[in-house]
Amino acid sequence: MYRLARNLLFKMPAETAHELTLDLLSAASRLKLASFLNTPVPDQPVEVMGLKFPNPVGLAAGLDKNGDHIDALGELGFGFLELGTVTPRPQPGNPKPRLFRLVEHEAIINRMGFNNMGVDHLVRNVKRSNYRGVLGINIGKNLDTPVEKAVDDYVICLHKVYPVADYVTVNLSSPNTPGLRNLQFGDMLKELLATLKQEQKQLEQKHDRYVPVMIKIAPDMTDEELYEVADALLLAEIDGVVATNTTLERDPVSGHEHACEAGGLSGAPLTEHSTEIVRKLAERLAGKMPVIGVGGIVDGTSAAAKYQAGASLVQIYSGFVFKGPELVGEAVDAITACMKSEVKTDSEVKPEAHKVEQSPEE
Ligand SMILES: Cc1cc2nc3c(=O)[nH]c(=O)nc-3n(C[C@H](O)[C@H](O)[C@H](O)COP(=O)(O)O)c2cc1C
Predict the structure, then answer these.
(1) Average pLDDT, rounded, for the chain
(2) Taking the complete model, does pTM exceed 0.70, yes or no?
């Protein structure tokens, strides 16, 4: 079904097709037709950060920035949805065109620039939705907020989404907001993490509910920088890390008519690089913090590779655009097979990095 629709959708400009697909999905959901469109996804429950996920394959941030399509996306078999990125105030994002498909490479280049309707709109949508699965909300800063004041935007968003989110992801890694990625390093990172942790503690008391906070990082950093980030996250007792966002790399798609478009590259050309980042990160974190692996999951093999590299959960975006909802089940099956083979050989192998340490009280 999706393959047929894809032929039509891919004849349209990428952003038009994106919006139309989500509108059609929502219409199908409202008419209770979603079950005809989707293949059932097997259960593979996992527990991460104290949250129970029906399966480890989630939707990555950016597809439903405003939470306008939660119920429809929630019927596609994902183990969890991550909405956003939202910013405190609505903003239009970059001028169009800003989204490019590189079909031969199963890749996307985007420079959307956090186009979104603002955090209040998203929170309203979450409250209205019937979705009862695990919900992550990804937060960012407005374009016109100086990087030195970014922490204020994150705090505003954290306060607003905390009561309705199961976990919150702090996006420090979009390449399309000037200066944002600088927040991943040095004192700026340490100060931001300390503030977020403090706010999280206060919000926990206020709402009598602990909501894990994760940090989303870019793939474009040296090993040294990556280890520095990992150490800072551990020190600040952050709950988890999402790796990775899109890359500025262009070598894998060089020669393509869109290769020189500014923005972040995602999809198949990102697979290996982001898996390597997950592997190095998981090794450094040594099971003390979970990793959500995202970047170039386009089939079961690439989903399994993220799990084997140490990811406790995975997310997909570009692969979903090229393969449709079938990819969710394929990814769950592949990860399930890895888990089963691990159980069989458990007595012989060393513990995997993705088996996150339980704290004593758990
Ligand atoms: C069009 C588009 C928009 C995106 N917007 C966001 C966003 O708002 N926030 C975010 O954290 N990541 C965003 N991402 C990054 C994805 O969540 C994901 O990290 C990245 O695309 C790598 O995964 P993939 O190869 O499966 O697409 C976006 C990606 C694409 C393609």
Answers:
(1) 94
(2) yes
